[in-house]
Amino acid sequence: MNLSMPETVENKTESRGNRKERVGEVISAKMAKTIVVRVERRFPHPQFRKVVTAYTKFYAHDEKSEAKAGDRVLIQETRPLSKLKRWRLVEVVEKGEEIIRTRGDAK
């Protein structure tokens, strides 16, 4: 008989195994319960050794729609939630200025 502590929400999340976490910037929050997060990765070029910056976009589930464009957020890997969503929002690390573009703005 197992007389250990009953499983709570905290115990269940700890036993899920190692899940990848990334910190990135929200570039879009226009979908319902979904944010697009751009994660920056810096590494030396394999041949020339110059530091290169690469960006990757991740679609993440934001249940409470708390993240806005420009925020820095922490996302965590999860089971597939849709065709593109495999990440979920853990927390908003830092609030940022929302990027507002109008038709006349040039990029």
3D structure, described in words:
6% of the residues lie in helices and 46% in strands. It has 107 residues and is mainly beta. It has one domain: Beta Barrel (OB fold (Dihydrolipoamide Acetyltransferase, E2P)). A 5-stranded mixed β-barrel has the order 1-2-3-5-4.
| Lateral strand order in the biggest sheet | 1-2-3-5-4
Helix fraction?
under 10%
The average pLDDT is 87
Unreliable sequence segments: none
Alpha-carbon distance between the two ends = 65 Å
Supply the helix-strand structural class: mainly beta
Q: Please tell me what the overall shape is.
A: globular
Give me the CATH architecture, please: Beta Barrel
Structurally, how many domains make up the residues? 1
Reading off the top of the CATH hierarchy, the class is best stated as: Mainly Beta
Q: What's the total number of strands?
A: 5
CATH topology: OB fold (Dihydrolipoamide Acetyltransferase, E2P)
Order of helices and strands: HEEEEE
Give the CATH H-level superfamily: Nucleic acid-binding proteins
